[in-house]
Design brief:
This protein has one helix and seven strands, in the order βββββββα. By secondary structure, it is mainly beta. It has a domain at 62-146: PH-domain like, CATH 2.30.29. It has a four-stranded antiparallel beta sheet. The chain has a three-stranded antiparallel beta sheet with strand order 5-6-7. The longest helix has 16 residues, at 131-146. The protein starts with 61 loop residues before the first strand and ends with a helix.
Length: 150
């Protein structure tokens, strides 16, 4: 059996002369100090701008688009775009989201029910028609992620 030389400097614990020493005892003052109050927030100027909104947490999303309309479901909520106009609904203001195929089976119909009972709908044409059958499970999964049945 061969004997290895002891490790060089830098290996193992420090020699006793280099070991840290405890700090000297600091005597306490004879009187008790009052606890310091927590820092107060600086008053904000009445015209100060609000901080920029934080991006939504990453999560699954759903997108259905045709030539004129679109439906987006993501971590922030549901958005409808119809002929260039966009309406966004945040999750806290949504009572429910419903969807179905149009009566002719050529489009996806998505409805948002607002907390105050108002009802909004967007219709997205599915081309080819088989795309509608792809959208249903995707939309169900994304909605279940953000609004689980409970």
């Amino acid at each position: 059996m061969t004997q290895h030389p002891p490790p060089g400097p830098g290996f193992g614990p420090p020699p006793p002369q280099y070991a840290p020493t405890p700090p000297p005892y600091a005597p306490q003052p004879p009187y008790a100090q009052a606890p310091q109050p927590p820092y107060a927030h600086a008053p904000q100027h009445p015209y100060a701008q609000a901080p920029p909104p934080q991006p939504a947490a990453a999560g699954p999303d759903f997108l259905a688009v045709d030539k004129r309309n679109a439906v987006v479901v993501d971590a922030s909520g549901v958005a409808f775009e119809t002929s260039g106009l966009t309406v966004e609904f945040r999750w806290p203001e949504i009572r429910g989201v419903h969807y179905r195929a149009s009566p002719d089976g050529k489009a996806l119909m998505v409805a948002v029910v607002h907390m105050d009972g108002r009802f909004y709908e967007c219709v997205v044409e599915a081309r080819p028609r088989t795309r509608l059958q792809e959208w249903f499970p995707q939309l169900a999964w994304v909605l279940g992620h953000y609004r689980p049945m409970g």
